[in-house]
Amino acid sequence: MTDLTQGPVWPRPQWKWLATPWAVSAGLLLAVAMLDVAQFGSVFEFALNALLHTLRYVVFAVLLLAYLKATGAETMVARAFEGREVRMIFLAAMFGGLAPFCSCEVIPFIAGLLALGAPLSAVMAFWLSSPLIDPPTLLITAAALGWPFAVGKALAAVGLGLFGGFAIKMARNWGVFASPLKQKQATGCCGCGTPKMDAKPVWKFWTEQERVQTFRKEAVSNGIFLLKWLALAYVLEALLVHYVKAETIATLVGGEGILPIATAALVGMPAYLNSYVAPPLLAGLMTQGMSAGSAMAFMVAGAVSSIPAMAAVWSLVKPQVFAAYLGLGVSGAILAGLLFQLV
């Protein structure tokens, strides 16, 4: 008799490849070739030149990220959560700029720190600063938007961490956030791995075969990841420059004042654009009239969180901590945008 307890095994849909960045990029270029053949050469050349210009940064970023993963260097951030609370806040904000965690990957790390009893103020400082910048992101941002913007984002990362950390410390002095975690802890949300905090980095990773394999695996996977998403980002940037009127962008997020900056931050927060993809898109938007302050606010808010990260955070911490996390992220992004606009 046939065993039916496991249920039918449905074949994997063959059309899922259409949702890959490669397919979307090819589809957009094909649409231009079919609908506006006169502009196809210009659009393709723009995207290709932009990608080739960034390629040297991509290679260095891939090798650096693979080295950090192979050595286990991300475990160094655990040292930031030892000592006095004020010292922890400063170290957590600064170490956040070195840890290669996205807004999703940082969540299991945060869960472990809170479960071990680390103060929420220091954890929040790291939580807000870590997804904003790391060495590879700094290089990608500099390639697309220039070093002033990249340095400004790095300073915004540390500043946002300090802002969030001391805000939580003040609230805790008033008796708020005494017990931040829910009973059931969350895991990662975007397929990101859970970092280990109890190991020590091994800088000469080539002495261990397992770490060499990790280096090779991370270099290949991150290289493919960056290339496919940057290719899509530059195709979208080319389309923005060629087909979206500058007046439209300038009306929404251009000009002076807090309104366009706040709008950019509120739009950027739920968007799932990692820090490698956002710079090329913002370069195109700035070409069309987006202000520098709005671009900074969008990038900061978008890096701090996204809809998948929000879902994981909601399952991890209590509602008041979730609200503080979003409020600090948005307000910090707006403040970063205003300061960068002034500078």
Structure write-up:
The protein is mainly α and 343 residues long. The protein has one domain (39-176, 203-342). It is 67% helix and 0% strand. The chain is built from 14 helices and no strands. The protein has helices at residues 21-35, 37-71, 85-95, 106-115, 120-129, 135-145, 147-173, 209-243, 246-253, 258-268, 278-287, 292-304, 307-316, 319-342. Helix 11 (278-287) runs antiparallel to helix 12. The chain is globular. Residues 1-10 and 185-194 have low confidence and may be disordered.
List keywords for this structure.
mainly alpha, 343 residues, globular
Care to give the gist of this entry?
The protein has helices spanning 21-35, 37-71, 85-95, 106-115, 120-129, 135-145, 147-173, 209-243, 246-253, 258-268, 278-287, 292-304, 307-316, 319-342.
